[in-house]
Write a structure and sequence with these properties.
With 272 residues, the chain is of the alpha+beta class. It has two domains: 122 residues, MutM-like, N-terminal (N-terminal domain of MutM-like DNA repair proteins, Alpha-Beta Barrel), CATH 3.20.190.10; 130 residues, Helicase, Ruva Protein, domain 3 (Orthogonal Bundle). It contains eight helices and ten strands. A hairpin with a 2-residue loop joins strand 2 and strand 3. Helix 5 crosses helix 6. The longest helix has 21 residues. It is globular. The relative contact order is 0.12.
């Protein structure tokens, strides 16, 4: 499932070609959405943003196109009149003066009104967004220590969108490793210094993933590996997907485990 950074980059791509543009053609695949075609046709896109893993396209007159990629959804950008070479199922097309934004495979799609946006079942449950400029590491630390979350296992907490919106499976592994946190721990079991470090790393790695196209490994490691000619698939992560490979920090083997029904990667030596 695409995580917050990936969805935000999709939003940026859509914004570059459609923000401020009038949508001249609208296509909806799902029957339930077709009644909105005329409502969005010839409307101008005001802004494109995200909330957690949800992508929101705001139109003039208060309309908002909501979409959640779930496991397989993906937005593509194509020159006007062209379509991507994909076998995915087309759900939405928005065409401006020179480009189209096309959503494939997603099923969680709705046209909403900006006034009722906070009432949407998914959006209303979201915690602070890890990519929001208004969220500080101190706020994250406070949530970790709050009664609602301090007694829960961190491995599950870091998949809960009501705790922090935008986190997902690869970010969970990478953040916990960067902060040196045992995934089985609970926030209330950690010293204040560890809580603060975890809070800082949560935001640092989320923003790093967004700015770098999903790279969360330490910048020094990335720099060395890129110079040596390694592809992105090799230097992208510090631990995620690296089962039985050497830890970049201590040299011991990375281990894959199952936590909360999802794969999780850790270094047993660095995350005691």
């Amino acid at each position: 499932m695409p995580e917050g950074p990936e969805v935000r980059r999709e939003a940026d791509a859509i914004s570059r070609v459609l923000k401020g543009k009038k949508i001249t053609e609208v296509y909806f695949g799902p029957e339930k959405l077709k009644r909105f075609k005329q409502k969005l046709t010839n409307k101008t896109v005001v802004k494109v943003t995200t909330r957690g893993k949800a992508l929101l396209i705001f139109f003039e007159h208060g309309y908002v196109l909501y979409s959640h990629n779930q496991l397989y959804g993906r937005w593509f950008i194509a020159p006007k009149g062209e379509v991507p070479n994909t076998r995915r199922s087309l759900r939405v097309t928005l065409t401006g003066d020179s480009h189209s934004a096309l959503l494939y495979s997603a099923t969680d799609i709705a046209v909403l009104n900006v006034a009722t946006l906070p009432e949407h079942p998914y959006l209303r449950k979201l915690g602070p967004d890890v990519l929001s400029d208004s969220v500080s590491w101190r706020q994250v630390a406070e949530r970790l220590q709050s009664k609602s979350f301090c007694g829960r296992g961190i491995s599950g907490l870091y998949l809960d969108q009501s705790f922090l919106a935008g986190l997902g499976n690869y970010l969970r592994s990478e953040i916990l490793f960067a902060a040196g946190i045992n995934p089985a721990a609970k926030p209330r079991e950690l010293e204040s210094a560890k809580i603060n470090e975890l809070a800082r790393r949560t935001l640092i790695l989320s923003v790093r993933a967004y700015k770098s196209g999903g790279v969360t490994n330490h910048p020094d490691t990335v720099r060395v590996m890129r110079k040596a000619g390694y592809p992105k698939s090799k230097y992208r992560f510090a631990v995620f997907g690296r089962n039985k490979h050497d830890c970049y920090r201590c040299g011991n083997k990375i281990r894959r485990v199952t936590a909360n029904g999802r794969r999780l990667y850790l270094c047993p030596s660095c995350q005691r």
